[in-house]
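Project outcomes to date are best conveyed with an example. Our students and postdoctoral researchers have been running inverse folding experiments weekly, and each run begins with a structure described purely in tokens. The record below, which covers 155 residues, was selected by the lab manager from last quarter's runs and is presented without edits.
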């Protein structure tokens, strides 16, 4: 049976600007699953050749570590997901029963730095644990209309 080396997550987390995962998935506690009931309808992307599509913006209106401290979890009670400019979904952050790992292929760039490859490759492959997911953001209610996207948060 073939085996592939699996490297643990590095202790020094890379800055969020170098993370190859979509910013939409980032929460104050790290990565999270997004659980949505239904179908998301969004406009056609301006660049159809792009492999990524911006669906919306995820916001945590109660998250303020300067005011409440890093250990406060009250912010988990409310999350907003803005889809396009006219819909807002309200949900909450819940802990998963069993955490799981996000694993990606690990490769080397020409400048000697390690990089995560998203496509297939040749030769010996190595895998790396990118992050451990412990939470999910659940949106169980219907979207509500808002005027002007994120600016309409007070509506």
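After processing, the design step wrote out the following sequence:
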């Amino acid at each position: 049976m073939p085996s592939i080396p699996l490297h643990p997550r590095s202790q020094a987390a890379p800055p969020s600007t170098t993370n190859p995962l979509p910013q939409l998935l980032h929460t104050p506690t790290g990565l999270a699953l997004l659980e949505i009931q239904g179908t998301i309808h969004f406009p056609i992307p301006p660049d159809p050749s792009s492999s990524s599509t911006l669906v919306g913006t995820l916001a945590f209106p109660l998250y303020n570590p300067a005011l409440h401290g890093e250990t406060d979890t009250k912010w988990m009670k409310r999350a907003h997901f803005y889809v396009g400019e006219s819909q807002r979904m309200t949900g909450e952050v819940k802990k998963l029963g069993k955490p799981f790992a996000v694993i990606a292929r690990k490769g080397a760039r020409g400048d000697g730095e390690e990089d995560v490859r998203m496509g297939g490759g040749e030769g010996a492959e190595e895998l790396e644990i990118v992050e451990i997911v412990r939470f999910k953001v659940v949106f169980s209610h219907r979207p509500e209309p808002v005027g002007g996207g994120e600016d309409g948060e007070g509506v």
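Residues 14-24, 108-119, 149-155 have pLDDT under 50 and may be disordered. The beta strands are 6-7, 26-27, 30-36, 56-59, 79-83, 87-108, 114-117, 126-139, 144-145. The training component of this project remains on track.
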